[in-house]
Structures are given as C-alpha cells and as structure tokens.
User: What shape does this take?
Amino acid sequence: MKTAPRLADVVLNRALRRLPAPTTGYTVRRERIEMRDGVALTADHYQPTGEVGGTLLVRCPYGRGFPFALVFGRMYAARGYRVILQSVRGTFGSAGVFEPMVNEAADGADTVAWLRTQPWFTGSFGTIGLSYLGFTQWALLADPPPELAASVITVGPHDLYQSTWGAGSFALNDFLGWSHLMAHQEDRPRIRAGVHQLTAQRKVKRAAAGRPLGAAGRKLLGDGSAWYESWVEHPDADDPFWDVLRHPAALEQSRVPVLLLGGWQDLFLDQTLAQYRALRDRGAEVAMTIGPWTHNQMLTAGLGLVTAESLQWLDTHLRGSTTTPRPSRVRIFTAGRGWEDRSDWAPADAACPWYLQPGGTLAATAPDAAAPPATFRFDPRDPPPTIGGRLLSAAGGYRNDSRLHRRADMLSFTSAALTEDLDVCGVPVLELDHSSDTGHVDLFVRVSELDARGRSVNVTDGYRRLRQHTGPVRIELDALARRFPAGSRIRVLIGGGNHPRYAANPGTGEAPISATRVQPATHTLRFGRSRLLLPADRGDGLDQ
Assistant: This one.
C-alpha cells in the first residue's frame, strides 16, 4: 500500500475548475483477481482515507498509468469513490492473451464475483470509462449483475462490426492504426513505445496504401495484433464471427441507469445515438450529452465537462445524493449556438431539400431532369484523401477541406450565400440518381460549410459501398446540430473514396483481404432527383 502522489492531482483540479473540490485523501494498493479459468488479472485499488461514497469498476487495456490512473483513479478517489482500475486480460501485468473484446463479458462477470467476496464491498457498484473501457461496460450490461447501480459510458461502442464494416468498406485507418497501437504499447524501454506513437500515423498511412490489405497490414504489425486479418476477412454483418464482438443484449435487457457521453466528431457517435434511442424506447433510465469533440478530445477539451457530469450521475445513482440532479435528459452542443438542454433526442426528419444543379451549384428548386449528367473517374491507386471527420486518430475533427473541392475526381455543389441563419439538427440524407461503369464502387459524400472568406470546413460525412447497383441511392450522413449562419454557404462533395479512413474499393469484386488488381470506375450522376435533405431544427423540447 502506498500514499498516492498529489502534484498531478493538484494540477488537474486547478485545470478542471468546474469539478467539485476533492474531499479526501486516498491510498493505492495492488490486487490480484483470479478468473474462472485460473488466469489472474492485475488491478490497482484506490481507497479513500475518508468517507466512501461508492465503488467504481474500470476495466482498461491501456495500462494503469497516465492518463487513466489520473482521470479514472485519482480524480474519483479524491472525491470519495473507491476505484478498482483493472488491466484486462493479456495487458500490463494481467495474465492470459489479449483478444480484443472476446473475453470482456466473462472476465467482467468474474471480477464482479470477486467484488462480492471483499470485506469492504457494500453491495453496489458503478462502472465508468471511455472507448474500449466503454465496451467492457456494455459487455457487463449484456447480463448485468444485480449489484450494478449505474454506468457512465463515454464514446463506448457495443458493436465492433458497426465500427469496422458498418459503411460497407473496412475502416482501415482507425483499426489498422489501433492494432498498431496495441502491438507496441508495452514496448520496452518506454521511450520506444513513445517513438512508435509519434510516428504511428505516418506508418499507418503508408501501410494502408499497400495491397493486398492483409499482407500490407501484417508488414506493419510484425508479430503483434494477430487479430487484424480476421477483422478484414469477415465483411458481412450476419457472419457469426462477430457474435462475441457485439452486445446487443445490453440494449435489449439492461435496466441499469446509463449516462452516455459523446462527441459530434467521435468515431462511435452513431452507436451512442442508437444506444440512447434503444434504452429510452424501453423505458430504461438514460441520459446523454453530445459535445463538439473528437474521440481524443474526450480526454482533453471535453474532460472537465465529462467528469463533472459523470460525478453528478454517480452521486445521484450510486451515492444517493439529491442535491445536484441532472437538469435535463439530453444536452447537446449546437455549433453557432452553444450548449442546449433538451427533454429528449428527437430531431426533425430530413425534409428540407437542396437540389444538386448542373454547373456545380446547390439550390432549393429542382433542375431540369434532362440536363446532361455529371461524371467523375475514381482511380483506386489515387483515391481522395481523408481530411478530418469522425476518426479514432488525432487526424479527425473539423478541418479545412478546400483541397477536396479542387480535385478532378470529386463533384462539388455549392449554394449561394444564405440570407438568414439555418438551424439543422438530426441526420441529413443525400439522395442520388447514380450509376457506374463497373459493378463495384464506393460513394463518399460530405457536407461542408464555407464561411464568408471562402474557407471550407467539413460538417458531416456519409459512406456507402455499392454492388451491382444503378439508380436511386439514399445515404444517411452523420448526425449533427449546427447553425449555418447568414452569409455562409453549403457545399456538397461527392467522390468514390475517402482514404485511408476507408479501404479503397479495388473495383474488381475480389475479397478485400487478398485483392491485388484494381479497376478504375467512372461514376455518373443524373440531375432532377439528386438532392440533399437537411433536418431543419424545430427546437422541440428545447429549454430556453
């Protein structure tokens, strides 16, 4: 047992001024927790020296040091919560082999069984954590123990397939990049792990350009991350391979109060919104906050608000406090307007039309359907580059994407300057009358905002893989909440790829894991029915 160092706590508390003040000191000791198959997992036990308000379980694959010790261990222990910060199987001192997501349901249940035997356990606990730490919570919620009183899930997926293959093309940058991270995060000396992280994005981008995907990825990963090929080999949603990597039962059965925290530019935004709707529709107690953040910003720009709301939720549902109830079920950040409290997430349907026009403009009235179509040629050897968007990596978020507009393999349609503010909240839809000269193509679509100076910034994206399809295509874009101010313009971009976020479609129909040949494709877009549909914000449930 040791007394926790205090300097980092003091610095963080001063930086995050919106948090309640620390109430107690704490000590930290090491725990060894045995699973049903005899494998022992290692955990750090944060014990407040003063009054204990509840127990928190945090299960993590990234180690028990910085930043997780600080933001999930020390921060909560200093406010009266006992914290068990556990390294999942096969990571940072826990025995066994790390297989992403595979063992989290069983190991989480076995850790709870260990909790029950501890003399200090009071009969209830909560869970917290972000990203993979959120997945471990969904795995536990699929068959929730009766002692679980509350969960706070920050940018946490419940379905790995939806994140890797949900768009129809493998999310190459994110999941080759994550596999590279996991292959090197425990390198010794530690400086070597640091060097790998500093150079990771460049290495992943270079590897993502190689073919076939399996061999190119393995060349980067070496002997590490043995699961990578298996993810690329299974592109179908109904493949039983994914059954242990998703937990829909958590949304269908759990009654545990859940707080969901996410960002408009987070990779897992679509799952966060789906989780909220599923739990709400079943009458489960659920609340949600969506901020202007990327995945990585949940630990930086968003950390203060995320932690404050997490503590508020835990104080209510675990500690039993009635002094600081959550003011509304849903809080969202609307770009151009700021934070808004809403009674529900009930956005408008996408019903406000903006028609694509010959000559590259965008207008509220439909053009003549007999107008000559627009075309572009997609070459898998030179796909449009990824610029911003909902990425797992630090390259995501809102970015100046003007150079996409200038590419010959992108179609661009831009509105006139808006004469008044346009408020949008929900899921935009792009309807295209489309065909191609090959049977295997992808469509990448984006809506950007151009300011009065002509600077273009991405707002929302959509992606779809098409197989032997000609005619109307309906693509749902990422959800958003935004005010397009008067004087700005709306731009629609359409291309055949977004690389390396998604693996470029080779155009041959070969299996992605082994495809080596490529076939360029010519896309044709017909006018008349091709249009962007925006969800005009009604403001329903808005507390002014």
In short: The chain has three domains: 7-163+241-342, 171-234, 352-534. The chain is about 25% helix and 30% strand.
